Amino acid sequence: MLTEGAGIPLAACLCGGNRNDVTQLEPLMEAIPAVHGRRGRPRRRPDQLYGDRGYDHDKYRNILRRKGIRPRIARRGEPHGSGLGTIRWVVERTIAWYHGMKRLRIRWERRDDIHEAFLNLATCIITFRHVQRLC
Fold first, then answer.
1. Beta-carbon count within 10 A of 62 CB
2. What is the end-to-end Cα distance of the chain in Å, rounded?
3. In the Cβ-directed half-sphere of 33, how many Cα atoms lie within 13 Å?
4. What is the DSSP code string of the chain?
5. Are 45 and 69 in contact (CB under 8 A)?
6. Are the beta carbons of 36 and 42 closer than 8 angstroms?
7. Which tens digit of pLDDT belongs to each residue from 35-52?
């Protein structure tokens, strides 16, 4: 999970469901767009990256460090204790909201642009529901 750098194009990260997540770490890092906000050159990478035990290997930690990103990856065989579960819960909850949209539970579309359009529409619906609760 990236702590900053939302808006990553889906086509850059889309792969088969039977692939290991860790194989897509580098393409995902390369697909992060510039983050606008403060004055000066826009940021191209997050400060840190949170990952579960599936990413626990020095190879991936070194890749992230070379890019100037602090890896926050849980280690296998050790108690959690790092606070990663609290942040990860937000991601799991959001994925559950997406699965609430029947069309997104199983990907039927062959074209990634149509699937991305449905994801964007689902994001708008989820955001609208949250704004309604606030008003």
1. 11
2. 30
3. 8
4. -BSS-----HHHH---TTS-GGGGHHHHHHTPPPB--SSSSPB-S-SEEEE-GGG-SHHHHHHHHHTT-EEEEPPTTS---SSHHHHHHHHHHHHHHHHTSHHHHS---SSHHHHHHHHHHHHHHHHHHHHHHH-
5. yes
6. yes
7. 777 777 777 778 888 777
Give me 101's structure tokens. Answer: 């949209």
CB 133 within 8 A of CB 28: no
| pTM listed for this prediction | 0.52
Residue 132 structure tokens: 């309604």
The per-residue pLDDT string of the chain (135 residues; one tens digit each, 9 = 90 and over) reads 444 344 444 445 566 666 677 777 888 778 877 777 777 777 777 888 877 777 888 888 898 898 888 988 878 877 656 555 566 677 778 888 888 887 777 777 788 888 888 888 999 999 998 899 888
